Amino acid sequence: MKSGVGIFLAVFVAIGLSWGGFVLAPQWQLGRAKLEPVLNSAATYPLPPTGAAALGLQVYRANGCAACHTEQVRQTGVAYEVVLTSLGGQPPEDFIPFVQSLLPVVKELAPFTNAINASLQNWKGDLPKVLFACQDKTVGDGMVNRFKSLGIKAEMRVAATGPDIARGWGNRRSVAADFLYAQPVQLGSLRVGPDLADYGSRAPGMALVLQRLYAPRSVMPDSTMPAFRSLFAVQKIQGRPSLDALKLPPKFAPAANYEIVPTPEALQLAAYLLSLQANAPLYEAPFSPP
Length: 290
Description:
Elements: H1 2-30, E1 36-37, E2 44-45, H2 51-62, E3 77-86, H3 92-102, H4 113-120, E4 129-134, H5 137-149, E5 153-161, H6 163-166, H7 199-202, H8 206-214, E6 232-236, E7 258-262, H9 264-275
Antiparallel strand pairs: 1-2, 3-4, 3-5, 6-7
């Protein structure tokens, strides 16, 4: 009898601790999340999704898109970029040797010699121009002030770093605020395809998104993405082609006098993908917008 009570209490405590760790703690941390202020702006983030995008989340979920895509950009650190914005009337051919003459004199620039020389190679004077990036803010500030005293305008920008950032998947890491309106959140765990957290910022537009959903290899020949043709309808052209009809290469086009049109679910899914824009600089994930 005594051992039975002990087992019951042990199981009760184990279940209670599990519930507290997996349900109560996340609710305490994130359940009261609210809109975040955007850095250097009066705006707040994120914007609520439109009706089509909200419905598209459910289409995304129903088609198992989270099995191959994540919605979480990872970041390993932050770099401070020294960016030239004006040469003050000085021609680039005079500015380049001037900067190169500073490299052996200014000790703080020694670690960035190769980066600066590579940045200036074949440079024709287009601005703004990233001169180099460093991890020490004081080094960047010192270079900006040195240029300022010579009438050259430069500024220091904050840039997130990491493999996901280098791939162009986002400008910063994903944070809890990004998922404020996502019910349920589609974080995903496998990257057979690219991360989609900021897909809307780099997407080419609705037409190409729909084309990619219908025939992925018509956009990227080596794509491993499955075709979601159940989200489209093949119909005979009645008079004029539909305004929504896909413009496909001959290899993927339907038979003569037929067209491919998206269903409402396809339009909703495309609207959802285009709404994924985690591109606001926040206090917990800062960066300088390009």
